[in-house]
């Protein structure tokens, strides 16, 4: 039995796991390892034993979350698939299907080129056995999607990691259309930022929006951050340090977090954690 799901599902499970681990309040390293192992066992029950394969589909998953999945769902084989509607399957576990023909094309206006170091980067072009012949009654889009020699323009910016004696490894950076260009000329991937934010136990949902004048994100706090506001003297357990460390600086500054004792965290700027936690808006 195969259980397919997009990265957003696995990000949520990982966030819940980190929250549960943080609430154990275990200081001893050996006990912490035992508690973590027990939590992994409990979370593994989310996928029934009759399921022997997990398929990650729809988008690129964070290596951190993927590592958690391998530790948690040991009874399953985890397959990270990359496919396109117009071409079918292209790669599995970041390695190209042997039947796929591919090449990269530089996107110099976004600073992704075949000359990039240590590995070439650019838009992925592919040919597969399941290639479509074109969009129905839309010759304009068909001409834009296919090259003169029959390659399909995937619209994905990738990095092609070629290591001696190993098959080529394709790392998907983001969709070509997903990038925002900042006022300083730098291109930013909102999907990459989204993945960083959603791995935090403090964030339930986030929408990252960009326009010519403003780049910001609306962050909805989770029940975990609301629970923090109920701690005596507005202190936060030290176990949340690992979670706080993955937050972008804007959120950390908004919360004014600093350590004051081996067991608690509180504000470092002469202010206390607010009793009512509202949505946080930060610039990225």
The sequence of SSEs as H and E is EHHEHEEEEEHEEEEHEEHEHHEEE
Binned, the helix content reads 25-40%
Structure class? alpha+beta
What percent of residues are in strands? 25-35%
Low-pLDDT windows of residues: 224-284
> Sheet with the most strands?
5 strands, mixed
Number of strands: 17
Distance between the termini: 41 Å
Sum up the overall morphology in one term: globular
Individual helix count: 8
Going across the major beta sheet, what is the strand order? 1-2-3-4-5
Mean pLDDT: 75
Structural summary, described in words:
It comes from Rotaria sordida. Its EC number is 6.2.1.3. Pfam families: AMP-binding (PF00501). InterPro entries: AMP-dep_synth/lig_dom (IPR000873), ANL_N_sf (IPR042099). This is long-chain-fatty-acid--CoA ligase. The protein is α+β, with helices and mostly antiparallel strands. The chain folds into three domains: 1-84, no CATH class; 96-174, Luciferase, domain 3; 187-283, no CATH class. Helix content is 26%, strand content 30%. The protein is built from eight helices and 17 strands. The chain has helices at residues 7-22, 29-44, 63-72, 139-145, 190-198, 223-228, 241-244, 249-255, and strands at residues 2-5, 53-56, 77-84, 88-92, 95-96, 101-105, 121-127, 152-161, 169-175, 180-181, 187-188, 203-210, 215-221, 236-237, 257-259, 264-267, 280-283. A five-stranded mixed beta sheet has the order 1-2-3-4-5. The protein has a four-stranded antiparallel beta sheet with strand order 6-7-8-9, with no helix packed on it. Helix 1 runs antiparallel to helix 2 (29-44). The two termini are 41 Å apart. Mean pLDDT is 75; it is low at 224-284.
């Amino acid at each position: 039995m195969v259980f397919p799901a997009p990265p957003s599902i696995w990000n949520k499970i990982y966030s819940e796991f980190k929250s549960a681990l943080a609430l154990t309040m275990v200081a001893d390293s050996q006990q912490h390892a035992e508690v973590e192992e027990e939590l992994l066992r409990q979370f593994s029950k989310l996928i029934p034993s009759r399921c022997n394969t997990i398929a990650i589909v729809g988008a690129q998953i964070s290596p951190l979350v993927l590592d958690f999945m391998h530790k948690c769902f040991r009874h399953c084989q985890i397959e990270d698939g990359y496919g396109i509607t117009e071409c079918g399957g292209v790669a599995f576990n970041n390695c190209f299907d042997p039947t796929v023909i591919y090449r990269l094309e530089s996107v110099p206006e976004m600073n992704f080129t075949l000359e990039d170091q240590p590995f070439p980067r650019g838009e992925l072009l592919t040919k597969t056995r399941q290639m479509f012949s074109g969009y129905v009654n839309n010759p304009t889009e068909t001409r834009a999607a296919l090259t003169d020699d029959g390659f399909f323009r995937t619209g994905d910016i990738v990095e092609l990691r070629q290591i001696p004696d190993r098959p080529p490894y394709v790392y998907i950076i983001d969709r070509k259309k997903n990038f925002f260009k900042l006022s300083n000329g730098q291109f930013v991937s909102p999907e990459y930022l989204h993945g960083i934010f959603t791995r935090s136990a403090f964030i339930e949902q986030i929408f990252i929006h960009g326009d010519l004048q403003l780049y910001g994100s609306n962050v909805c706090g989770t029940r975990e951050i609301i629970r923090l506001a109920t701690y005596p003297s507005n202190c936060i357990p030290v176990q949340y340090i690992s979670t706080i460390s993955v937050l972008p600086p804007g959120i950390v500054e908004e919360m004014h977090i600093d350590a004051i004792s081996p067991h608690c965290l509180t504000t470092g700027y002469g202010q206390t954690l607010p009793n009512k936690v509202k949505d946080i808006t930060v610039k990225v």
